[in-house]
Amino acid sequence: MARQSSATSAGAPTAGACSATSVAPSRAWAGCGGRLRRRSDPAAAVGSQTIAAELDTTLPAPSPVELPREFQPRTLRRRALQAIGALGGLAAIVLLAPGLGEVRDRLSGADPGWLVLATLLEGLSFASYIAMFGPIFCTGLGWRRSWQIGGSELAMGSLLPASGAGGLALGAWVLHRGGMDGPRIARRSVAFFLIKSGVNFLAVAVLGAVMALGLFGPDLSLWLTAFPAAVATLALGAVVAVPRLGPGRPVGRSASRVRRGISAARRAVIDGTGEAHQILRSGNRRVLAGSVGYWAFDNAVLWATFHAFGLSLPLTVVLMGYLIGQLGGLLPIPGGVGGIDGGLIGTLIVYGAPAAGTAAAVLAYRVILFWLPLVGGAVAFSALRRDMPADGELASCAHAIAAQSG
Q1: Cβ-based burial of 273 (10 A; exposed 0-12, middle 13-18, buried ≥19)
Q2: In the list 1, 44, 123, 191, which could disulfide-bond 24, CB 3.0-4.6 Å?
Q3: Is the CB of residue 150 less than 8 Å from the CB of residue 384?
Q4: Residue 403: CA count within 13 A, CB half-sphere
Q5: What is the distance in angstroms between the CA of the first residue and the CA of the last residue of the chain?
Q6: How confident is the model at residue 4 (pLDDT cuts 50, 70, 90)?
Q7: How far is CA 281 from the centre of its chain?
Q8: What is the pLDDT of residue 329?
């Protein structure tokens, strides 16, 4: 992958990047001044056909009217009901099952002030996600469009966490419908995922090492400090080394669909990882603040829910428990119920948190984590459906992102 100089970084597109595409769709869009602006171009009747022909064949051509079946309102309502049912079942177990009286006592004595603070902190995490969405996917994308697409992704993530894969799939479809080509969407999706998740791994590496050396936090086994730090460090090292593998040999159109899919996935991962490095080196403030804020505010929600039930754990324990326990979110369970909850409760108890208080705090955390992105994202999704990108609106992102990618 050819590399661009630092002058064309993620946050600073070239002057050419601010112009409309040379082959514009029937209604061209320009990304100047920090916002995408529509302008008329009567000579561009053939442009939309040219752009459509250049779209990656691994993504189906977007429907001009309807969302894909998995994102249809009926499907989303069914998933929402499944997730709500799972949360309701979990709540019923806590409220009715014998032997959980201490947990119920903790829940009944919750401090409303701390729960309100936890909700506000989750709102800041939501806003942080939206802040980093635009600069990574489309230079010049306005805040409103970033909110529509990014908020919709978070709503989808509430219904089917799987580390945000469901949300990214929705975002990819919307971006493709707006005129962005498939390979670029794939690369930027990889970059976005790595930047968003990389903060977690970096935090585990640093906190684990600090705790293992006895510089900060309680005295815990090396298995709970040095070992997670070593694993996280190896994972970060692997991400840094991935671009060196190269995209591999090109696969012709005569190859099987499976081979072409594997080749496209490899290119997306290799190139997307390289672009993640470039974006981070550019020092874009929205990307840096958004990625750290998304992680930090979500951690703070869990910290606040512990305080809501009268518990004050060492910050290092909350952070390490959160970072490792969140691995349960990799499971594609409706609403993440059972996966995230079990991972967090189990990990925090291993790190020395009291069982009853931890169960109450995690349950409150999960309710906030489920409902706030779902409700806020549903509003964004409703606005997105009424104002879906079309007519090549996002095709003008191509030059800016090409300049960033090198």
Answers
A1: buried
A2: 44
A3: no
A4: 22
A5: 7
A6: very low
A7: 20
A8: 60
> For 312-325, what is the mean pLDDT?
86
Q: Can you tell me the distance from the alpha carbon of 389 to that of 31, in angstroms, rounded to the nearest whole number?
A: 14
How many CB atoms within 10 Å of residue 261?
A: 13
> How many other C-beta atoms are found inside a 10 Å radius of the C-beta of residue 44?
20
Question: 58 phi and psi, to 5 degrees?
Answer: -75, -15
pLDDT higher for 24 or 382?
382
- Please indicate whether residue 63 or residue 299 has the higher confidence score (pLDDT): 299
CA-CA-CA-CA torsion for 121, 127, 132, 133, nearest 10 degrees?
A: 130
pTM exceeding the 0.85 threshold for the entire prediction? no
User: Over the Cα atoms of the chain, what is R_g?
Assistant: 23
DSSP label at residue 258: H
Main-chain dihedrals φ then ψ at residue 293, nearest 5 degrees: -65, -40
Measured CA to CA in angstroms, residue 96 lies from 78, 91, 354 at distances of 26, 8, 21
The answer to whether 36 and 393 have CB atoms below 8 angstroms apart is yes
CA-CA distance, 32 to 34, in Å (whole number)? Answer: 6
pLDDT tens per residue across span 81-94: 877 777 777 777 77
Torsion of CA 36, 39, 42, 44, to 10 degrees: -10
Instruction: Tell me the per-residue pLDDT of 362-392, one tens digit each, with 9 for 90 and over.
Output: 999 988 988 899 889 989 998 998 888 877 7
- Which amino acid is located at 218 in the chain? P
The span from the CA of 150 to the CA of 381, in Å, is 9
- Considering Cα of 25, then 31, then 35, then 39, what sign does the dihedral take? negative
Question: Beta-carbon neighbour count of residue 87 at 10 Å?
Answer: 20
Confidence tier at 64 by pLDDT (50, 70, 90)? very low
CA-closest candidate to residue 377, choices 369, 388, 389: 369
Longest dimension (CA), the chain: 74
Spatial contact of 405 and 273, defined as CB atoms under 8 Å apart = no
Across-strand partners of 92?
A: none
CB 146 within 8 A of CB 139: no
CA distance 73 to 215: 51
Q: Which residues contact 384 (CB under 8 A, 6 or more apart)?
A: 148, 149, 152, 174
Q: Exposed, middle or buried by CB within 10 Å (0-12, 13-18, 19+), for 362?
A: buried
